[in-house]
């Protein structure tokens, strides 16, 4: 698998609270359906629909019906996507975003399912399995992933057009982003933004989509996820990302991502 890509398969009834990822995400609902309040409006997606999420986009996820839903997702590092966008645009731009949170296109869905299976070796029930599938670590799988990534950038990504966050909120957010492990108070954020504590609380929630505390927790969770992907032991990752202990990290990690830190560590 290409460096900078994380693959996740899930089959769950779990409801996910509002959260965000540092990465781009694109996936396929394989069974059931879900409802989501994405940063691009409320959406519903069912079996056969392709779903997307942009870095930093606040979203949640609730199953429709009692049987839950199953999906396969690829999470793509922004640096990897930036390189692909520069290539596709002939060096004209490196920043882009998915415009549609749900894509109903059988050809795109079929292509994703094929590439996901090639990259991971994981086939969903009912998929047509080749007689001699390539190893996920093979050059064939890497080439398939690279070709799919370039095609995805060329057909599904657009240059961002939405207005930016106010400068006062950006200053407050940067204080958290510069060191998510450091303790920070509303007074600190108010000083950084030039607003009162109540003003920064309200403006941050409106501009970012999460309260400052919820945003801080998300930044720490994404840091832990990145450290675990890079091979850091779980207890060390918990401490390095600002959690009181491993159990605290595990509870929040599982609640927001739907799988445990141990499951993530075992997949690399």
In short:
This protein is α+β, with helices and mostly antiparallel strands and 268 residues long.
How do the helices and strands line up, and which of them pair or pack?
Layout: E1 5-12, E2 16-19, E3 24-38, E4 41-46, E5 50-53, E6 59-63, E7 69-76, H1 78-88, E8 97-98, E9 102-103, H2 106-120, H3 139-156, E10 157-158, H4 167-178, H5 186-193, H6 197-208, H7 212-229, H8 234-240, H9 246-257, H10 261-266
Antiparallel strand pairs: 1-7, 2-6, 3-4, 3-5, 3-6, 3-7, 5-9, 8-10
Helix pairs in contact: 1-3, 2-3, 4-5, 4-6, 5-6, 7-8, 8-9
CATH architecture grouping of the largest domain? Sandwich
Number of domains: 2
The CATH H-level homologous superfamily of the largest domain: Jelly Rolls
Q: H/E element string?
A: EEEEEEEHEEHHEHHHHHHH
What structural class should be given to the helix and strand makeup? alpha+beta
Query: How would you sum up the major sheet?
Result: 8 strands, antiparallel
Helix segment count? 10
Oligomer: single chain
Large-scale geometry: globular
Kindly provide the radius of gyration, computed on alpha-carbon positions and rounded to a whole number of angstroms.
19 Å
Report the end-to-end length measured between terminal Cα atoms.
11 Å
The helix content, as a percent range, equals 40-55%
Kindly report the average pLDDT value: 90
CATH C-level class of the largest domain: Mainly Beta
**Strand percentage, roughly?**
15-25%
- Low-confidence stretches are none
């Amino acid at each position: 698998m290409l460096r900078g890509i994380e693959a996740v398969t899930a089959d769950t009834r779990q409801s996910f609270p509002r959260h965000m990822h540092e990465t781009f995400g694109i996936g396929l609902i394989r069974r059931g359906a879900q409802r989501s309040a994405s940063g691009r409006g409320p959406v519903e997606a069912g079996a056969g629909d392709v779903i997307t999420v942009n870095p930093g986009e606040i979203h949640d996820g609730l199953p429709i019906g009692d049987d839950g839903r199953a999906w396969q997702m690829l999470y793509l590092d922004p640096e990897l996507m930036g390189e692909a966008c520069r290539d596709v645009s002939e060096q004209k731009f490196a920043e882009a975003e998915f415009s549609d949170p749900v894509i109903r296109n059988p050809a795109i869905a079929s292509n994703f399912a094929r590439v996901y299976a090639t990259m991971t070796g994981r086939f969903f029930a009912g998929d047509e399995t080749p007689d001699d599938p390539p190893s996920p670590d093979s050059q064939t799988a890497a080439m398939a992933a690279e070709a799919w990534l370039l095609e995805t950038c060329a057909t599904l990504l657009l240059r961002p057009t939405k207005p930016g966050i106010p400068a006062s909120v950006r200053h407050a957010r940067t204080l958290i982003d510069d060191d998510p492990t450091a303790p920070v108070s509303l007074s600190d954020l108010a000083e950084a933004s030039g607003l009162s504590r109540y003003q920064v609380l309200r403006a941050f929630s409106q501009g970012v989509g999460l309260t400052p505390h919820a945003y801080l927790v998300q930044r720490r969770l994404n840091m832990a996820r990145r450290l675990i992907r890079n091979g850091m032991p779980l207890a060390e990752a918990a401490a390095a990302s600002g959690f009181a202990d491993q159990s605290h990290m595990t509870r929040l990690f599982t609640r927001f991502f739907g799988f445990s830190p141990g499951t993530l560590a075992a997949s690399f």
